[in-house]
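Notebook entry, structure prediction.
Reason for the run: the old model in the group folder had no record of what sequence produced it. Starting over properly, with the input documented here first.
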Amino acid sequence: MNCNDHWLSHLNPATRLELGRRTFLQRSAGGIGLAALGSLLQGGARLGAAPLPDHASRPGLPGFPNFPAKAKRIIYLFQSGAPSQMDLFDPKPQMAQRRGENLPESIRQGQRLTTMTSGQKTFPVAPSIFNFAQHGKSGAWLSDLMPRIATVADDLCFIRTMHTEAINHDPAITFCQTGHQLAGRPSIGSWLSYGLGSANADLPAYVVLTSFGTGRANDQPLYDRLWSSGFLPTQHQGVKFRNTGDPVLYLSNPDGISPEMRRDTIDEINAINQQRQEAIGDPEIATRIAQYEMAFRMQTSVPELMDTSGEPQHILDLYGPEVGTPGTYAANCLLARRLAERDVRCIQLFHMGWDHHGGLPNAIKGQCSDTDHPTAGLIQDLKQRGLLDDTLIVWGGEFGRTIYSQGALTETNYGRDHHPRCFTIFLAGAGIKAGTTLGETDDYCYNVVADPVHVHDLNATLLHLLGVDHKRLTYRFQGRDFRLTDIHGELVKGILA
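New structure, fully documented this time:
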């Protein structure tokens, strides 16, 4: 018996058999038929709860948050493909004197290589061709690829010593999202939805936006399971807003169906479901009633959210020239601010195109052109509205890049392979010590010298800022208590305000 089905034991045998048979069918063949509606049917009541009244928030677990939160929400700007830290945030000028030299074995220390470079006979050092300068009162180092982000440097906290366990994209992104390299566990947004609930019943607690980078066409794909609820109840799954067409499938009513007709239909379905729920006490029926209510409300709330025609020009200018093109990173950053205003708990933007095994100088220029202006604009916009005080911003990818060149090295061109031992991310907003740079890497930007920060440490700290003790947010599955940080994770106190 599943740990969430303990209520079955209180029913008579005939009812248990009926529920078991029906549940099996729903989760197999029936579940396939309902999959198309899955993106709409989010945010319903927790198992066993009564349907939510209109516009009510959905509470989280009893006792959560565990302590006063610094942040009410998180905006996670995930740069899929792994940005090159030594070309953006972690300058190594001494490498200019070692151009083309083979990476010393004393630095590599036998690190395993990917299949992309395992056949190389040498590993020539490839210094960055970009210029760095210090910015703001904090003196943060940034390359000239990010002039807009440089203007908000004093609002940022850089961690130069992130490290991870995975060396390939899919397990590395999965690890960042779920705390495990293999798919199947809940994502960070699902954990937040489960533990903290939702502050807005008209929108999902967890929204995902995706965009394609100009730096590398046909880059590493993204999979919907990256924002899956795993073994948590499916109501906590992230809802992906599409970057073309209706943001959510089946959001628009078919021709000839008015909102009033849709309301009447839902009322009739809910009345039948309510009778059945009263007869047999299946809490999943109550959940389904609430899910249909959420779907109906989203037919109004999502179009209103997506309509940016009322945004003044000076606000649009903050996000750059692509803000008016749906599906771009800039447009998604503006939507992230609008979602934050509406108290969506977790907002994730995935921007593809950072996987630069070759032709990095030109490709990274494209990626920074996509992201520099909108990222800075988002931070400025949140700050001027007072939202940065209770919104946590994270910018970063799944791992870093190697100092040595993948393939041929020239004066103006090089590529970089995957590097899990050290990479850089930055944070801003609620509870973050602004104007800070944490950690130190060696001269080759290859190994951590001081203040290492593991992915589990980062996730533990993000949860802490949202009022959650990462050791207490657990879910029993298959006889074991699971959590986002597995059995690891320590707070990164050096970045906390």
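Summary: Residues 73-249+295-495 form a domain with the Alkaline Phosphatase, subunit A fold (CATH 3.40.720.10).
The old model has been moved to the deprecated folder.
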